[in-house]
Amino acid sequence: MNILSDSFSVLMDHWQLVTGILSIILTGQMLIWIALKRIFENRLTSGETYSLSSAGWMLPILLTSMLWSLWRSVQRLESSAPIIFIVVAIIAIVLFLRSRKDMLNDSKSVFFTMLALSGLFIFLRLAFVSQTVIPLYFDSAQHYLIIKNLLGLPASNIVALFPWLGGVYYHLGFHFVAALVAAVWHADGINVMLILGQMILALIPLSVFFLVRNETQSDWAGLLSVLLAAFGWYMPAHAMDWGKYPALTSLMLIMFVLSLAYLSIQYRKTLSTGNFWGLNAILLVAFGAAVFTHSRALVIFGIFALAWILATLWQRLPKLPQGALLGAILVGIAAELRFIHTKDVLGPLFDPYINKGLWITVLILFLTLFAQWAFPKLTFTLILVMALMLGSLFIPAQGIPGYADLTLLDRPFVEMILFLPLSLLGGLGLAGLERVLSNTFARLANNGAILGKSIGIFFVAIILSNALLHYEVYPSGCCNIVGRDDLVALDWIDKNLPAAAHILTSSTELRVLATDEFQGSVGGDAGIWINPLTGRATTPLPFSTDFGQVATLDSLCKMGITHIYLGEIGSTFDDTKISPYRDWYKVSLSMPKVKVYQVVGCP
Amino acid sequence: MGLKGDHVNRKRLILGISITILLILIISGVAWFKGKQSGQAEVSRRFPLQRLGYCSSDQVTPCIVSFSLDSDGKMLVNFLTTGAFYPDFYLKIKQGDVQHIYGCRKASTFATSVYCTGAALPLGQVFQFSIFSLKEDVLLAEGDFSIIGIAIGTPAIASSPTVGTPATPSPTEGLVLETPIPGQTTPTPTRTLTPSYPNYP
User: Fold this and answer.
1) Quick one: closest CA in A to B21, which residue?
2) How many other C-beta atoms are found inside a 10 Å radius of the C-beta of residue A321?
3) What is the distance in angstroms between the Cα of B139 and the nearest Cα belonging to chain A?
């Protein structure tokens, strides 16, 4: 009951922003829906088309946002976002109304179920915001800064559009969309990140429906995969605790690209030439948008493509080698699991699927048997995809500017995305089981086939019961690095410290790869938010820095550090190594859990 | 025939889901309004006066998160409120006939955080804390308690009971003093590095 009242409370507090984001999502959905209807006419069901539009809504919105940024640079119009959005929305509505007769040509039940699930998922996910004042973990500060920069771009300078490309590359898709939302609805960037993030998270599960439904022709199988993706494991929702906004956003686009690629293969012989190339054009743009949103999407596409090709070749083999190869891959996955467990950095990878979500994973393993029997090619592809994803943790990726030691995929990303193949396998498995039971019952009774199909209700009930008992929609305590005192301290810094203040903040070491090499440093506490929120210059140093050393003071003086920030939560500087040295460091702000020192010991 | 039956079942399914969602929305709406009524002070005083105290796990707002001192010796009282819709207020702290007024401001971006600035007060003595709406000067919440009851991060702040004097941290109390000796290095304690992006605890 708390979840419902918390969600409602957030809805009441932010109804304008929620409605505003919904209008933007709906505009994107309508445009994708219209394009797909033009290409496929009535070949796809309304449920399938809705799933695809839920996966691809961001594509036209991202393009609109980039157009808006370009428009601002060329026309020097600062308040052009609402105008551009209104024009795009009117175009979408007019096109949608013109072709509405063909919109719902089939059974509407699945479409309305999907629509209801969208509303329910969004509503439930809003509860997260009730306990979050600021987006979590260190990544979020970077995302906020980029959104802020996009909103504050000088309209006269087109080069300023992409200042990050000169240095370290960063994924920008989510930021463009968030900036557009903030500009259209005059909303605060922090609130946009929190609410847009939750709404994106709510829509991700709907994107898996299409692939399962189209392959199996079973609505229940599609719905089961949606529920698995939504509530099966604590991933991908937990990625929100990590501030992984771009990665989460890319999940929708990844599913959109995979679905379009599947359509392109399946319908290559039945579509007219114009429609076929129209589909491929959308596929190409979506591919670019997905990689732009998160560069590791490129690796995922490569893995899926390789797995699909290998599955095609595998299917041509005689039965015995087929079985032997499948067995070898399963043994390979088991070996990978065992090896990964021995690495402390990679160990947490399976926590969502083995420690906390064991029963659901066991259920998937059971269903996979039926999936392999009924849909061998797609199932083999998905098994291979998982094996390759795990293997990518150990394959080095060299030559990426700004990054020294990288592997094709890192642990958080693999941990976050593993739910996708598992959810798809669950859906395929249910459809396989339906077939087995329908065939068995059909021999026993006249209406046996219908009885067989009703098995889906049982599995949906299991997932929902598990979600009701165990699923957590609130932020995890693991990843909050900003406390209540920090919020006041950040505002105090903004109002009281000189603009030229240069603040030392705490950092910790990034550890996500199997390699023991240094992978970079990241913000350790709320100090990471000082620059994005107050504009004061900051320099990070490891949280274990010993401030009692003369050498440390000399370094601070040479760097021009004027203040030191000690946050409330996370990996903060040790106050007992600063407070004794009153000739060097003077307290500027003393809160029970936060301190700001002024460096006074420089000559 | 079978298809028709299937179609009817689907319609029932939609109806069932729609009714369930509607019920959920209505129930949560009622729960939210009930929570709002019991947990928030209203300027119009139609509801009982809110008790003011330290923030705890029950999250009754407004409440006091912490007391702090800035470099000018002023005391910062850190409040947690329900958010952007909570009225702007000022803080009055009374002890006997003496009263202190503290101007309050919402921390920019974080509407739930409000902090009030004013004279530093001694620890350990009981004060009456009252917050009044700026617009209509209506009492929003009130409570009697001492500043000593707060969770304090370092012993330095807790031990500065001088009236009207900024509670400057005194690092010597509760700590072993280390005098910095130029050129001499002290070993840095090693901490075990844990993987980034932790899972659910």
Assistant:
1) A120
2) 10
3) 24
What is the dihedral sign for C-alpha B33, B36, B41, B47? positive
Contacts of A450 in chain B (CB under 8 A): 2, 5-6
CA geometry: angle at B117 spanning B116 and B122, to 5°? 105
* Spatial separation of the C-alpha atoms in residues A285 and A280, rounded to whole Å: 9
Q: Which residue type occupies A343?
A: K
pLDDT tens digit sequence for A225-234? 999 999 999 9
First-to-last alpha carbon distance for chain B, in angstroms, is 54
Q: List A residues 1-40 in contact with B (Cβ-Cβ < 8 A).
A: 1, 4-5, 7-9, 12-13
Nearest to A549 among B2, B66, B185 (CB): B185
d(CA A464, CA A467): 5
Residues of chain B found within 8 Å of residue A134, distances taken between Cβ atoms = 109-110
pLDDT at position B15 is: 64
Q: Token match 């003595």: residue?
A: B125
Tell me whether B57 touches chain A (CB under 8 Å).
no
The b-or-e profile of A375-407 (16+ CB within 10 A means b, else e) is: bbebbbbbbbbbbbbbbbbbeeeeeeeeeeebb
Q: How far apart are CA A298 and CA A307, in angstroms?
A: 14
**Chain A closest CA to B93's CA: distance in Å?**
19
The strand ranges marked E within A198-322 are: none
Q: Which residues of B touch A576 (CB under 8 A)?
A: 175
Residue of A470, A202, A520 whose CA lies nearest to A358:
A470
- Distance CA(A223)–CA(A208), nearest Å, equals 9
B58: contact with A, CB 8 A cutoff: no
d(CA A111, CA A123): 18
Token digits for A447? 């209406």
Structure-token pair, residue A196:
């847009």
What are the b/e assignments for A185-203, b being 16+ CB within 10 Å? bebbbbbbbbbbbbbbbbb
How many Cα atoms occupy the beta-carbon half-sphere of A4 within 13 Å?
A: 16
Q: Which residues of A are less than 8 Å from B85 in CB distance? A: 13
Q: What is the pLDDT of residue B61?
A: 78
Q: Are B54 and B145 in contact (CB under 8 A)?
A: yes
Q: Are B18 and A114 in contact (CB under 8 A)?
A: no
- In this complex, the residue of B83, B108, B172 whose CB is nearest that of residue A494 is B108
- Chain A to chain B Cβ contacts (< 8 Å): 217
Mapped onto helix, strand or coil, the DSSP state of residue B125 is coil
Parts of chain A with a pLDDT under 50: 155-159, 164-168
Q: Quick check: A579 and B156 CB within 8 A?
A: yes
d(CA A570, CA A507): 10
Contacts of A356 in chain B (CB under 8 A): 200
Q: Which two tokens stand for residue A302?
A: 């490569």
CA distance A233 to A361: 9
Chain B segment 59-118 residues within 8 A of A by beta carbon are 65-71, 76, 78, 80, 83-85, 105, 107-110, 112-113, 115
Annotate A451-460 with b (16+ C-beta within 10 A) or e (fewer): ebbebbeebb
Q: Which residue in B25, B112, B171 is closest to A582 by CB distance? A: B171
The parts of chain B modelled with pLDDT lower than 70 are 1-48, 57-59, 84, 108-109, 148-193, 201
**Bridge partners, residue A564, by sequence:** A504, A597
Give yes or no for A544 touching B (CB within 8 A). yes
Other Cβ atoms within 10 Å of B97 Cβ, number:
5
